Amino acid sequence: MTIAITGATGHLGRLIIQGLKQQGRTDLVGLVRDPAKAADLAIPTRIADYDRPQTLGAALGGVDTLMLVSGSEIGKRAVQHRNVIDAAKAAGVGRIVYTSLLNADRSPLSLAEEHRQTEAMLKDSGLAVTVLRNGWYAENYTGSIPAALANGAFHGSAGQGRIAAAARADYAAAAVAVLTTPGHDGLVYELAGSPAWTLSDLAAEISRQSGRDIPYVDLPQADYAKALEDAGLPAGLAAAYAGFDAGAAQGALDGDGATLARLIGRPSTPLADSVKAALA
Q1: Who contacts 181 (Cβ-Cβ below 8 Å, separation ≥6)?
Q2: Which fold has domain 136-166+192-255+269-280?
Q3: Predicted structure pTM score
Q4: Domain 3-134 has CATH 3.20.20.30
Q5: Of residues 9, 11, 18, the one with CA closest to residue 49
Q6: pLDDT tens-place string over residues 149-162
Q7: In three state form, how does the secondary structure of 3-32 look?
Q8: 72 vs 244, more confident
Q9: Half-sphere exposure of 145 (CA within 13 A, CB side)
Q10: Fewer CB atoms < 10 Å away: N or C end of the chain?
Q11: Distance of alpha carbon 38 from alpha carbon 9, whole angstroms
């Protein structure tokens, strides 16, 4: 059974491939836009560009299961995913596993709409489908630790909203489990880490491990967006990130960690471990 992984050179795609190889799977194909970035994957690769449908048919030839890692270009993903799904059907792919968003059907996050559209496409595709509604990646926040250390504070706009984040490796492990064991067709998994934490908890853990006082400073959404823009982010992206924090303040990033733990056979990565990795 040949498994193809889209976004194979991305953070999540690489971890999924690593997990599959650790299980001894050799029937893998990495789908990439830039083969030059894929040399270290040590698996066969094929060019597959979401924006160039003409590349997708050949890339999916002979593939039994497609691991469709959602695209990263917000605003373009529904069309990109449609291209992949149509090509998969035409190529005779039998099964798709898709990375969606936690509670995508009701999430207020701006990210959710394209995931809702993609899930609807998959439902109508006639293929066997498993949807992995991934919660927030801990790395989305721990990636800001260097800036927090430089600024002497961790800034955000999430209030005391609980964030049921898990490490990217945890979500990759769930994908590997679903790709390699039976009984997942037609299911939607809501995946989140446990226990949930707040940005105040994150700042306290950064302080504990760094030996410095790094408080959490909560800003109004507009002020946080302006701070991100001043730090160099494009205005649209800064506004989106501030909006994600505002959603977190309303509970949009909270969730139940039981399903993820069951799929991967262990608890999700603790916050302390994610902070340690970022500080390293």
Answers
A1: none
A2: UDP-galactose 4-epimerase; domain 1 (3.90.25)
A3: 0.96
A4: no
A5: 9
A6: 999 999 999 999 99
A7: EEECCCCCHHHHHHHHHHHHCCCCCEEEEE
A8: 244
A9: 24
A10: C
A11: 6
Rounded Cα distance between 5 and 63, Å, is 10
Q: Which amino acid is at 178?
A: V
Q: Is pLDDT above 90 for 126? A: yes
* CA proximity to 186, closest of 259, 134, 137, 123: 123
Q: Where are the domains of the chain?
A: 3-134, 136-166+192-255+269-280
Cβ(132)–Cβ(174) below 8 Å: yes
How many angstroms separate the CA atoms of 165 and 139, rounded?
Answer: 9
φ and ψ of 274, to 5 deg: -65, -40
Instruction: Work out the pLDDT band at 7, boundaries 50, 70, 90.
Output: very high
Q: Reply yes or no on whether the pLDDT at 75 is more than 90.
A: no
Taking CB atoms within 8 Å and a gap of at least 24, the contacts of 222-228 are 223/157, 224/155, 224/156, 224/157, 227/155
Kindly tell me the burial class for residue 193, based on how many C-beta atoms sit within 10 Å of its own C-beta (0-12, 13-18, 19 or more).
Answer: buried
Which residue blocks in 23-167 are alpha helix, DSSP H?
Answer: 56-59, 77-91, 112-124, 139-142, 145-151
Mean pLDDT of 28-54: 93
The first and second tokens of residue 169, run together, are 């490796």
Strands, DSSP E only, in the chain? 3-5, 28-32, 45-47, 65-68, 95-101, 128-134, 154-156, 188-191, 216-218
- What pLDDT score does 244 carry? 96
Which two three-digit tokens encode residue 146?
A: 């260097």
Which amino acid appears at position 37 of this protein? K
With bands split at pLDDT 50, 70 and 90, how would you rate the model's confidence at 11? very high
Distances (CA, A) of 75 to 70, 79, 118, 153, 210: 12, 9, 12, 32, 38
